[in-house]
Amino acid sequence: MPDLAAKKQRPLWYNLSLLNLPLPGLVSILHRVSGALLFLGLVWFLFLLDMSLASESGFARFRVYVAHPLVKLSLLAFLWAYLHHFCAGIRYLFLDIDKGVSLPAARASSYAVLAVSLALTALLGMRLW
Amino acid sequence: MVERTIVGAHYGLRGWLAQRVTAVVMALATLVMVFGIWSASPLTYATWKSLFAKWWMWLSLCLFSLSVMLHAWVGVRDILMDYIKPTGIRLALEVLSLLALAYYTVWAMQILWRI
Q1: Is B6 a domain residue?
Q2: Other CB atoms closer than 10 Å to residue B22's CB: what's the count?
């Protein structure tokens, strides 16, 4: 009897760490993470919008509030989350209609999503602050 | 034993489609609002408020607010289904998310109708 158990070491442990994810996989999980982040941030965005539009004094308080470094940093993080979710979302809409589903195209577009959202975050972030 | 026909019952199709349609609405609304905020200068309370009072800005924000609630509900439900296995906790979190989104919708409408 051949010893099958010795030949096939089970269970197999695949390395699924983030660094070993292919690029489209990275875009995918970041799409989910950014989506969750934006959902959690909703209450804060509404709070900010409410404050800024409520009254003259509310607007003044809003300006002081968003000038705080920690607030700016959080806004920058949310800006990235939004831009990534936006760009990746557009990519998924195209994938849904079977555009760009070949491996090279999917890789190129996932790279573009990462690059464009990061570049736009830097650009808008600098512009706003 | 649950008897289900997989084909033709559209399980989950409505949610899936709603997420895509709201995504397109929000993407367009985002472009409109970014343009609006970009063109509003100098940024004072008066210009800020009158910006949101413009019909296209108001409409974009309104459609965006309604869309984001539907969109987020589908997304949050997907995440909860993937990671939260105990039914009780999952149901509790789903109800909590739904209540939060309902509250946000009312809040957003309140902001919009005050402008």
Answers
A1: no
A2: 21
Per residue in A113-129, pLDDT tens? 999 999 999 999 888 77
Chain A residues with CB under 8 Å of B38 CB are none
CA-nearest residue to B23 within chain A is A89
Q: Which of B23, B44, B79 sits opposite A93 (nearest CB)?
A: B23
The vertex-B48 CA angle with B43 and B52, nearest 5°, equals: 150
Determine, for residues A53 and B75 on separate chains, whether the beta-carbon distance falls below 8 Å: no
Residue B3: its H or E element = none
Domains annotated for chain A, with CATH where assigned, are 22-128 (1.20.1300.10)
Interface confidence, given as ipTM, is: 0.89
Domain assignment of residue B25, given as a range: 13-114
Model pTM score: 0.87
